[in-house]
């Protein structure tokens, strides 16, 4: 079977790998769609994603959807042909008591397509993958595998909204309207945010935010509405964070969604003290992927986050499109 491997920065390769057949308690999935994530782009551009540094080649990808192709011994509740997506995380050992409910912070966690651990964890950009049955999330009837490829990044967005606390009835801001930022708009609206302001330098990104039900889309945080009390920084750009901290109201909450560079950055942090701003990180998700699948099943507007499709043979062109201006979520078709 063909798999998409990152060999070195700017060096993607389609390689042949043996099909892995399911053992007891496992499932083999024929992959149909794979979404290119910012972490995939980071490895492709520079061999780095956040604090994870690539040391050797590995298969990319953790946003996938497809259909069950084969069941291993003892698997119940699943059937060949079912549409599914996959929770990409696995943990080993007990979770420290202080982290109960926050399995995404498990000290021994692996994630598809990640260089955070050594050896690296191969991802899911393959024509088929074999996973543990408890990683499989069944798609409700009527939810296409195309739209379901957004389940993992939407789960990330929903976890970010949970990290902000109760946003019901509040005016929130989302700065950075790439794919995850757009899905934060969707997640915040689903969590009953009363008003959503989106910020992005690109006009096309602002237009997409409005299509996903943002109330206002602008290109700057200057002149921010003083009623905004929750902000999501989804671009990973220090200048965006700086603008939020300078302009947001006192006693607000700021959630850092975008990956900031692993090196020192220039941001004026004084407002965190003088305004008593709660600045919070958010990392992947816990169980929100099941809620994400349910939201995708009820919201066809989410599909507008997908801007481009490329066949696996054109993977390099797909990554170039995902890294360029004007695109949103770029997906590979298998």
UniProtKB/TrEMBL annotation:
- Protein name per Swiss-Prot or TrEMBL: L-idonate 5-dehydrogenase
Domain Alcohol dehydrogenase-like N-terminal, residue spans:
23-141
Q: Which PROSITE patterns match?
A: ADH_ZINC
**What's the superkingdom here?**
Bacteria
Q: Where is the Alcohol dehydrogenase-like C-terminal domain?
A: 179-297
* CDD domains per the UniProt record, alphabetical: idonate-5-DH (cd08232)
Q: Under the GO molecular function aspect, what terms does this record hold?
A: L-idonate 5-dehydrogenase [NAD(P)+] activity; zinc ion binding
UniProt family annotation: Belongs to the zinc-containing alcohol dehydrogenase family.
Needed co-factor(s): Zn(2+)
Pfam families, alphabetized = ADH_N, ADH_zinc_N
Q: Which Gene3D superfamilies match?
A: Medium-chain alcohol dehydrogenases, catalytic domain, NAD(P)-binding Rossmann-like Domain
The EC code for this enzyme is 1.1.1.264
Q: Which UniProt keywords apply?
A: Metal-binding, Oxidoreductase, Zinc
Give the SUPFAM superfamilies listed for this entry.
Answer: GroES-like, NAD(P)-binding Rossmann-fold domains
Keyword Amino-acid biosynthesis applies: no
For the keyword Iron-sulfur, the answer is: no
Organism, as annotated: Brachybacterium aquaticum
């Amino acid at each position: 079977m063909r798999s998409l491997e990152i060999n070195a920065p700017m060096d993607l390769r389609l390689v042949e790998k043996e099909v892995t057949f399911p053992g007891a308690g496992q499932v083999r999935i024929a992959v149909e769609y794979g979404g290119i994530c910012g972490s995939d782009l980071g490895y492709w551009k520079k061999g780095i994603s956040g604090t994870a540094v690539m040391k050797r080649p590995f298969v990319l990808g953790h946003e996938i959807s497809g259909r069950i192709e084969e069941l291993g011994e003892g698997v119940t509740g699943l059937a060949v042909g079912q549409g599914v997506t996959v929770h990409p995380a696995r943990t080993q050992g007990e979770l420290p008591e202080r982290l109960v409910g926050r399995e995404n912070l498990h000290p021994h966690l692996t994630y598809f397509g990640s260089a955070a651990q050594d050896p690296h964890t191969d991802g899911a950009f393959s024509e088929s993958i074999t996973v543990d049955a408890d990683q499989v999330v069944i798609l409700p009837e009527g939810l296409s595998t195309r739209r379901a490829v957004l389940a993992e990044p939407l789960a990330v967005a929903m976890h970010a909204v949970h990290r902000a606390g109760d946003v019901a009835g509040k005016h929130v801001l989302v700065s950075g309207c790439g794919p995850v930022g757009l899905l934060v708009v969707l997640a915040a609206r689903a969590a009953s945010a009363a008003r959503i302001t989106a910020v992005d330098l690109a006009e096309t990104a602002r237009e997409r935010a409005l299509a996903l039900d943002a109330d206002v889309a602008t290109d700057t945080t200057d002149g921010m509405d003083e009623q905004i009390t929750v902000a999501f920084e989804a671009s990973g750009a220090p200048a965006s964070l700086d603008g939020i901290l300078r302009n947001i109201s006192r006693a607000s909450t700021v959630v850092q969604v975008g990956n900031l560079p692993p090196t020192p950055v220039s941001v004026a942090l004084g407002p965190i003290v003088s305004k008593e701003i709660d600045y919070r990180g958010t990392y992947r998700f816990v169980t929100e992927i099941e809620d994400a699948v349910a939201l995708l099943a009820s919201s066809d507007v989410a599909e507008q986050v997908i801007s481009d499709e490329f066949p696996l043979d054109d993977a390099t062109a797909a990554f170039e499109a995902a890294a360029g201006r004007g695109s949103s979520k770029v997906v590979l078709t298998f």
